[in-house]
Fold each of these.
Amino acid sequence: MIHSIKVSIITSTFNSAATIADTLESIAGQSYSNIEHIIVDGLSKDDTLSIVSAYPHVAMVVSENDKGIYDAMNKGIYMATGDIIGILNSDDFYVDASVVQDIADIFAGDPDIQCVYADLNYVSQNDTTRIVRRWKSGNYTKESFRRGWMPPHPTFFVRKQIYDRCGVFNLQMGTAADYEIMLRILEKHRCKAAYLPRIIIHMRTGGASNQSLKARWKAHQCDRLAWKINDLKPSLLTLFMKPIRKLIQFV
């Protein structure tokens, strides 16, 4: 099979030695061959970069000061030369060898599709075989975001031209930057999306926006700002339904 669509995968790292090997292995083991893996490192002081150097599939590595994870992601987007861009965090990994192939097939099958997303499992930090929470996305509709819906960002693959047209991550949005960019792409710009109804990523628990009530409240405020800066109006229940949907995923 000719893998004509080039897929760039961006991984931002900072002192990620404990988990980065799983991420690298999951990309190195993909059946799809036309992958450009980009590592954007924030000057790690542990063995992250030496671990990365052992994987010849990695196409580009940059290690320098940054303004956080979303700044690193933006750098990766600007560096990427692929037709499609995906982001895989340094403590996440693909569940099997056919993930990128399945994503590429959807894009190849319909040139009008501008982004693809799928399902994700949260797993224990110390035991990645133990599933803590299941994130089943479901199909996107016009009212989905207003009902508190969002797709899991690590499963979100986008044509590079969409970033060129819609912009990259807004660094003022804090931990809600991923929510804001998907809201912008899907809700404001109405980019055509396709849903791949299967789990493609295992994500370790411990996200920054969920570490405390204070962090959760700050994220809630940023969610509200995401609608405002895009000139969109949520319903009265939108921002309350979003955390409720997360709670349901634990059941």
Note: The chain has one domain: 7-248.
Amino acid sequence: MELMECALDTSASLLNLLQNASDEVAWTTLVDMYSPLIRGWLKRHGAAPGDVDDVVQEVLTIVVRRFPEFQRHPRTGAFRSWLRTITANCLRDYWRRSNRRPVAVGGSDFAEVVNQLADPASGISQIWDREHDEHVTRYLLAKIRPDFSEQTWKAFQRFALDGLSADAVAEELGMSANAVFIAKSRVMSKLRHHGQGLIE
């Protein structure tokens, strides 16, 4: 959990860049980062395959258009919650316009799934939050992986991600326990640095 919390510390840098509508790098990062998350969520929760790309595009278009309205609060998850709300509203609007009632996985009413997504206290919203956090963490880790030697990364992975003790990792990799702690510290430091330019 420490890793997840570190990776997802709120950072204003990308959010500040997004205030400048002409910053194409920031917007490309946003789209690259969030398109797979939204697409995967829609597919897993029963959206029709033919609708997925249209909804993803609509969500991200609205994020871009309405970003100046976004108020970053001094709490973790402000953007994540805002994105979830936009996604729920886009889903409602999309199916209202198409004049049909989509069916979710298991035959349930997708409208109920969307209503739960809009409710921050619902189980589905909690799933959204967890999937968001996991997705962002994977994105960050993939970005920084090339910056480390195989040994450093393996020590970090076995210790911080797999949950082995420092002594067990040290024995497995033929290094000292102190070196394992240093490897974790180096990766976590880089992760924090990269997190400064990515949305929580």
Note: The radius of gyration is 19 Å.
